[in-house]
Design brief:
Elements lengths: L1 H32 L1 H32 L7 H21 L1 H4 L5 H33 L7 H25 L3 H26 L2
Helix pairs in contact: 2-3, 3-5, 5-6, 5-7, 6-7
Amino acid sequence: MGRLFAVDAAAASSAAAAAALNGAVDWWKDVNDSPMWQDRIFHALAVLYGIVSVVALVQLIRIECRVPEYGWTTQKVFHFLNFIVNGVRAIVFVLRRNVQLIQPEILQHVVLDMPGLAFFTTYALLVLFWAEIYYQARAMSTDGLRPTFYWINGVVYAIQIILWLVLWWKPVRIMVILSKMFFAGVSLFAAFGFLLYGGR
């Protein structure tokens, strides 16, 4: 009798868990299918990116007012790129529905991918900054760091442009996936730089 009760309790527990899971899936489906929820989420993201963009601009202006004699330092360029990247992303989130209507479709990919590429450049610049500090602290030459930074960025942008051109020439779904995978790999590469120089 006790064994039967345990089996019934386990079955009831499984049924309750399945019902809860179905409820969660249904909730997500409702949110995902609702244009109102999508608009709210994208507008909230636009506000957040806009705030980050404004903070970066304020920081850039603050640094420029404090030390204008140094020109465009790595720190100033970093804040400027953050301002641009986050500002463009905020605009893209606000105009999301219009971006989805851009024709030819390749322009949609360019508009959506360019902030990501600029984001890569921004954080590659941060890695460069950390690498320069690391090398200078160890009394090592930093002569090769900036050319490497430019070279890596040039290669990344060239490959992405080639992928866009191939996608424009032959719009195949696999090319879109390949382009996204390339960008994921580039982001992983930037994260590796963070781990290498940011953790030292």
